[in-house]
Amino acid sequence: MALPRVVDVRPAGGGRLLLEFDNGESRAFDVTPYIRGNWYGKLADPDYFNTAHVVDGGRTIAWAHGQDIAPHELYELSVAVKLHQTSPL
Prior knowledge:
By secondary structure, this protein is α+β, with helices and mostly antiparallel strands.
């Protein structure tokens, strides 16, 4: 079974990303376990963290210098959230 594709990513504070998938699901992904070492440690900078964007036709997300998260991790390790019109989380 193919994984849903990411159609939107928004930083949500606290090292989390709000992801919207092409199957209509909204999910929150906690990036904090990845923020270690020289490469992923750059994500600790909130301004840099906010450069998260969709890449590879929605297959995954990445940051400005190329850090990325495996597509299956984005979906399988995220949790479903309900969005409110006035509050993103």
